[in-house]
Structures are given as structure tokens and as C-alpha cells.
Design brief:
single chain; alpha/beta; four-stranded mixed β-sheet
Length: 318
């Protein structure tokens, strides 16, 4: 007898992840693709269509958490139309931060702070009410995000190269080396502009530098540590504002997104906002939880624990 399946797609700004889970708890296809945010990825439609074409015929339900969904009516309609035209299965679509919140608290109340390419907090009070803070995009928002951290690092590098910054030399050589650039101060021949001009997806590439900044901070490079502390202060404002939405409810916070894989960043946040809850499920696990409910699987505590372990063993943590 063929085992039925459910599927989830987590479509962020940097990556898109498809996970298929069989009824017996084993994984089907796990496929990683480029980001599918319609605001900065021109191929977002083909990326989603390609992933949906890999769904097994046994799929009972598909849950998608897509970056940008619900932020603009026109783009949201396009996302829904693309899925409806290419998915023969029952499906639902929500924002990628919503599935991260569902996964982190396994459906209970809390504040989910997501700092990936962008930054946003999603808050649910456990009584069916929800709200959000941040998520305004890189032009006038996304403070503390991986993109923000990468941009701050590049700005610092530029100021070191042309001499405006005369004190943070400890950052110059190791960061320039990671980019494959010359650390020759006061020189426009370092190749920074050429490096940027070659990027196929500048926003995602700049965001990927957040890990480098975190690694340098771990090594004791003070300017990198300062960037991480500043990012924590900006992200912490999201938690404070989110908790203010439901002042009569004591809400824990949890996290998702590549930037918050940084231990130092989480510790800086914890110093002011309390220790975070380790997410029960990664974001794509939140979408799987939604899909399981749609398929009538009754995902209880045992199912959540088993699914979390299955995804962990598969290296799916964010």
C-alpha cells in the first residue's frame, strides 16, 4: 500500500526549501532552491513551479510559507495564482514568518523573531490573535537582519579603505580576505566595487556576509562584535514592540533565520529580553504542521517530537 504524504515549502529571500514527509514519518524529497521573494527574485515563479513539479502523487496537502505574501495585494494574488495553476493538491499559503512562528511554538503563543535576509517579529497570543512588527524591506526597514549586518560590514570596509575610519584596522584584513579583496588601505584598487558588480543576487549575497561578521566577532574582532551588538539592539526593539501588542499576556520569544544562528547575537538579545525558547520545529516544520492538520493527520505532541528529530537528522534547522 502506498504511503500518503504531505509537503511544505519555505520560500525566503535567500533560499526556498521543499520538504515532503510521509505518513510513516520518513522523509520524501528534500530540495533546496534559490530564494523566491517576488520583490527581489525575478525567477520566483519558475522556482516555485519547479519545486511543485517534484511533489509525489501521494501528496494529500501542501502548505507554503512565502516571503512577501500578504504584504502587497497584487503580488499576493500572483503568488496564489501560480500555486493554484501548478498544484493539483489541497494547499494553503501564508507568510514565511507565520510558518516560522507556528513551528517555533508548535501552535502556541509567543513572539517569533526572524532575522534572515530581512527582519520581522510575528506575535500570536494563543487565542487566535496575531500581529507583526517590522518586515518593511531593505529600503526603510529590516534593521538587524543578515542584510543589515552585511551592509554595515561593507560600509565599515569602505571607510577603512578610503581612510574615513582610522581606528577599526582589526576588521580590515580578515574581512577583505574573506571577500578575496586587497586590504591595501586608502586604495580604490581593492576591488570592492568590482566584487559587488559581479553579484547575481546582491541582496542575498550581502546577507550571506552576516555569518562572516559573526565568525569574526567570535574570534574577538572588536568592530565585528560592535556590529553584532548593534544588530541585537535593533532586533530587540522588535521583541519589545511585539510584546506590547498583547500587554496582558506573558509571551516567550523564539527565533528563526540565518542571522540568529549566531550565538553572540542570541546572547546579546537574551541579556535584555530573557532566554529564548529553542524552536520546537524549524520554519518548514511549521508548514508541515499546517499541512498535517489539513490532511487530517492529528499532529499531536508525539508527532511534533518525531518530526523535529527527523528534520534535525536531515540537517534542516532553519
Amino acid at each position: 500500500m502506498t504511503c500518503s504524504s504531505i509537503a511544505a515549502i519555505d520560500g525566503g529571500g535567500t533560499k526556498t526549501l521543499l520538504v515532503v514527509l510521509h505518513r510513516d514519518g520518513t522523509l520524501g524529497p528534500v530540495i533546496r532552491a534559490p530564494g523566491s521573494n517576488p520583490f527581489d527574485q525575478v525567477d520566483w515563479q519558475s522556482i516555485l513551479i519547479s519545486l511543485m513539479s517534484r511533489l509525489p502523487s501521494t501528496t494529500k496537502a501542501l502548505s507554503l510559507g512565502l516571503a512577501g505574501y500578504g504584504e502587497m495585494r497584487a503580488s499576493g494574488r500572483k503568488q496564489k495564482d501560480v500555486v493554484a495553476s501548478n498544484c493539483p493538491h489541497i494547499f494553503n499559503i501564508t507568510n514565511d514568518v507565520n510558518i516560522a512562528c507556528t513551528g517555533a511554538f508548535a501552535g502556541h503563543g509567543g513572539v517569533l523573531l526572524l532575522a534572515g535576509t530581512g527582519s520581522v517579529a510575528w506575535v500570536v497570543n494563543g487565542k487566535g490573535e496575531q500581529d507583526r512588527v517590522g518586515g518593511w524591506g531593505s529600503l526603510f526597514g529590516d534593521e538587524g537582519s543578515a542584510f543589515w549586518i552585511g551592509r554595515q560590514a561593507l560600509s565599515l570596509l569602505a571607510m577603512l579603505l578610503d581612510g574615513r575610519n582610522q581606528k577599526d584596522w582589526a576588521f580590515l584584513e580578515p574581512f577583505a580576505d574573506v571577500l578575496g579583496l586587497s586590504s591595501n588601505a586608502n586604495s580604490y584598487d581593492a576591488g570592492l566595487m568590482e566584487w559587488y558588480s559581479r553579484l547575481e543576487n546582491p541582496r542575498a549575497s550581502v546577507a550571506s556576509l552576516a555569518k562572516t561578521v559573526s565568525d569574526l566577532a567570535e574570534q574577538g574582532i572588536v568592530p565585528a562584535q560592535r556590529i553584532i551588538v548593534e544588530a541585537a539592539a535593533l532586533l530587540g526593539a522588535h521583541i519589545t514592540a511585539a510584546r506590547r501588542k498583547f500587554p496582558d499576556t506573558s509571551l516567550p520569544w523564539s527565533y528563526a533565520g540565518g542571522a540568529l544562528q549566531s550565538r553572540l547575537l542570541r546572547e546579546a538579545l537574551a541579556a535584555h529580553h530573557g532566554d529564548p525558547l529553542v524552536p520546537r520545529l524549524p520554519p518548514v516544520g511549521g508548514a508541515l504542521l499546517n499541512a498535517a492538520q489539513m490532511a487530517g493527520w492529528n499532529p499531536d505532541e508525539r508527532w511534533i517530537c518525531k518530526t523535529a528529530e527527523t528534520l534535525r537528522l536531515a540537517g534542516i534547522s532553519s
